[in-house]
Design a protein that fits this description.
With 384 residues, this protein is mostly beta strands. 12% of the residues lie in helices and 47% in strands. It has one domain: monomeric porin ompg (Porin, Beta Barrel), CATH 2.40.160.40. It is built from six helices and 16 strands.
Length: 384
């Protein structure tokens, strides 16, 4: 059945979060097999392969640092009182301004979420409920355009710098159904309904001067709001599963069929069709090797940055499938840095136990700077 050793970040149709501990453990590479009630958000076609029904609970969180923005922010805001900028020496101003310009790179941002879910799945259909808080914070590079860096910017120029913050709190209900269209091809659909509130705003750069820099504080401030706009949306995902012999499977998943959009007062948040392909190889019943890729670059986080994740995962079971170890790695083909401390590379690890009728999973995420970014926990009850 299932459990965990893991990785990275998600390409959900509307909001980017991973889908359970096993999904995370394998870097979201396993589009061809799962045994999780969150199958409706991984590939609904997989429901046809369920040999029993199940129900479960999940908790997952992620506080991601993309581009090393945390260290750059700490250097600026914690070690220097920028409100005293005009009293600094010209040499110090030049050094700090270089750090500001490095911070305001388009690929730098914080992104994170907390999600709690419950659901049921059988051999044909599934029903899930999720409660999600999600936020990102990123520098606004356009605010640099009004500043002449060659004239030794002063405090007034520093006050022109802005951050963009996006926050969302919503509930999501997902109903999925799957059926076979031939002896080796399964087709599945999931209908997603979400309702909540979103807020997108500008934040003054100097508001962080002298403050403690924390991914958790920055992101939780993003979704802890009383204002914002109400959202309500229905959208559809679909998936195909191809069984090619006894050891090989392939999958195609389309997220956000029809380019769904959230229409806000000042803008619309539209998701391009996200088409992912996956393949898996099973040398024997105890091993699984998975690979997946997003076929077309997409703005997954609504930050204006195109991403194209690719992922590789490996799974090994022990003691007649009582213990599972999984590992995965995920990168971005569109990133300036494919490897190194500034890259979006994510590696994860975890473990799980299958003591029928209970299945329990745990997973952790590690970024390219060897910092833990988040975790996922699952508890599933199998109905014999």
């Amino acid at each position: 059945m299932l459990l965990v050793l893991l990785l990275a970040y998600d390409v959900a149709a509307f909001f980017p979060f991973f889908n359970g501990a096993r999904d995370l453990a394998l870097a979201q590479s396993a589009l061809t097999f799962t045994y999780d009630f969150q199958v409706c958000r991984i590939n609904p076609a997989l429901l046809s392969g369920f040999s029993t029904s199940l129900q479960g609970l999940s908790y997952q969180q992620n506080y991601g640092d993309w581009g090393g923005i945390l260290e750059k922010s700490k250097e600026l805001f914690e070690k220097n009182n920028l409100k005293n900028w005009d009293s600094f020496s010209n040499e110090k101003k030049a050094s700090l301004w270089s750090s500001v310009q490095s911070l305001y790179n388009q690929e730098n941002f914080f992104q994170g979420f907390v999600s709690k879910g419950a659901g049921f799945a059988s051999g044909k259909w599934s029903l899930n409920y999720f409660n999600v808080h999600w936020s990102w914070l990123k520098p606004k590079p356009e605010s640099l355009e009004n500043i002449d860096a060659e004239k030794n910017p002063g405090y007034q120029e520093l006050a022109l710098l802005k951050f963009l913050q996006f926050g969302a709190r919503f509930s999501q209900v997902v109903l999925a159904y799957s059926f076979g269209i031939s002896s080796n091809i399964d087709l599945g659909f999931s209908v997603n309904y979400l309702k909540g509130r979103v807020l997108k705003k500008e934040v003054n750069f100097l508001d962080f001067a002298g403050e403690e820099v924390s991914k958790r504080v920055f992101l939780e401030n993003g979704w802890d709001f009383s204002e914002g706009e109400e959202i309500s949306k229905i959208y559809i995902d679909t998936g195909l599963l191809f069984t090619i012999g006894r050891s090989l499977k392939a999958a195609l998943v389309v997220k956000g069929v029809g380019k769904p959009a959230l229409h806000l007062q000042k803008e619309s948040l539209t998701i391009e069709n996200q088409i992912s392909a996956g393949i898996s190889f099973h040398p024997d019943e105890s091993w699984g090797i998975y690979f997946s890729a997003l076929l077309k670059p997409s703005d997954l986080f609504f930050t204006g940055v195109k991403q194209q994740p690719v992922a590789l995962g490996v799974e090994k079971s022990f003691f007649e499938s009582k213990l599972f170890l999984r590992a995965g790695i995920r990168g971005d083909l569109q990133s300036t840095y494919l490897t190194g401390s500034n890259s979006p590379l994510r590696v994860s690890f975890g473990a799980g136990l299958n003591i029928a009728p209970l299945v329990a999973d745990i997973a952790l995420i590690m970024n390219s700077r060897r910092q833990l970014d988040g975790l996922a926990l699952n508890l599933i009850i199998l109905n014999r």
